[in-house]
Amino acid sequence: xxxxxxxxxxxxxxxxxxxxxxxxxxxxxxxxxxxxxxxxxxxxxxxxxxxxxxxxxxxxxxxxxxxxxxxxxxxxxxxxxxxxxxxxxxxxxxxxxxxxxxxxxxxxxxxxxxxxxxxxxxxxxxxxxxxxxxxxxxxxxxxxxxxxxxxxxxxxxxxxxxxxxxxxxxxxxxxxxxxxxxxxxxxxxxxxxxxxxxxxxxxxxxxxxxxxxxxxxxxxxxxxxxxxxxxxxxxxxxxxxxxxxxxxxxxxxxxxxxxxxxxxxxxxxxxxxxxxxxxxxx
Length: 282
Description:
Blueprint: E1 13-15, E2 24-26, H1 31-43, E3 55-56, E4 59-60, H2 64-73, H3 85-88, H4 98-104, H5 107-115, H6 128-143, H7 151-154, H8 168-189, H9 197-201, H10 207-229, H11 243-255, H12 264-281
Antiparallel strand pairs: 1-2, 3-4
Helix pairs in contact: 1-4, 1-10, 5-6, 8-10
């Protein structure tokens, strides 16, 4: 669905119907949900389910490095990271927590890994490629989380609102970050050794996550430029999420009581009831 007929180039936008209006529709995955798929894949690299063995530029990217860093720093009086047991020992619930994912892919974790790389047991599982991966993911997180200005955000240019179509963050996402993902795939495919296609696929982040990231980045950049060209003074990237839609469906489910599978008739009835309540209390 998201490829051209040739099967190579990603499709991230189309022209809406009816054709006479010529409005552009952009395809974009919910950034918070998309971004947490990356640490979930990473967490299974040489750890947990051990379903992946991430590899890039001759080095392994192992989750055991995060576990080792936590063990090294958990008793520090002044912790240099926000890592806790919940970050390293993932459960079905914590895997869905975007905040935990963002705190793993953070500058503080990357910095701590560099500083403690010679300490045992971290030195056995440390790699420079892992630190680069965390740094890039941190910047990508921030690009999708720009919003209201504050003193803290002014210190990090990746968190500011978008006010120019020539913003350098677009170049980072569309060129640097996508190139990094493509180079990773190329590196895995060219790795020497008799590996099956399935084994090579486990050496990188899932192809679904990578494809979703590429589509979302291209759509995000195009949509931001479109809004700025139309006169928007700024664009807050943190507003690009499906939270309002989830809240809307949550209201329907709550109005349905014990019914887990609402029919169209129930949804329409709930909609009218919710609208009536809004009018009564507005």
